[in-house]
Design a protein that fits this description.
rod-shaped; five-stranded mixed barrel; alpha+beta
């Protein structure tokens, strides 16, 4: 049985360490949705239920801690039955619990929603010029995101908005910002 514990510890431990060291990109995808009040959000699919019990992460966490417990418990003088029961229990608790915590904390919904009310009064720059009869495009940086909007002159006030010029967002009409020149 010692061989089983050692193999579990080595195989599970290697993959747990690789996942900790490797880090890499998470499953979070950043989307910019300028059609719905510039909702900028990062989302991940967080599954729940029985499928999570058999995820690769759960299996490797189980193997690593089952093996670790099985290897270390003889130092405490436990018999083979108690050692097996304790190793299974710790492996299951850490495997399932660790997977749950990683999914809930690591892949938690991160949102930096920008509402119409928050955009009101913000300064932006014109990237596609427009006049009182046309629609152009503006860009602003808010909550760490660079967001572009279609823009038009507020209440058709006659003016020309040149590229690079600063404007103030007066209000949002759907996905279109109504702006005035900044002075």
């Amino acid at each position: 049985m010692d061989t089983t514990y050692w193999i579990s510890l080595i195989v599970g431990g290697v993959f747990v360490l690789l996942s900790l060291i490797g880090g890499g990109d998470s499953d979070l995808d950043t989307e910019i949705d300028s059609d719905l009040d510039a909702d900028v959000s990062s989302e991940s699919d967080i599954g729940t239920g029985w499928v999570d019990l058999f995820s690769v992460r759960t299996i490797f966490l189980f193997a690593a801690f089952f093996g670790l417990c099985g290897v270390l418990l003889p130092l405490a003088g436990l018999g083979e039955g108690a050692r097996l029961l304790a190793s299974l229990t710790l492996g299951l608790v850490i495997g399932i619990g660790g997977n749950y915590l990683i999914k809930r904390v690591g892949y938690a919904h991160i949102s930096s929603e920008v509402t119409s009310a928050e955009l009101k009064g913000r300064t932006a720059k014109v990237v596609i010029p427009f006049d009182s009869l046309d629609v152009g495009k503006i860009v602003l940086v808010t909550k760490g995101q660079r967001i572009q909007f279609k823009a038009r002159s507020f209440e058709a006030i006659e003016d020309v908005y040149a590229e690079g010029e600063e404007v103030i967002i007066v209000r949002m009409q759907g996905a279109v910002a109504e702006v005035l020149k900044a002075q």
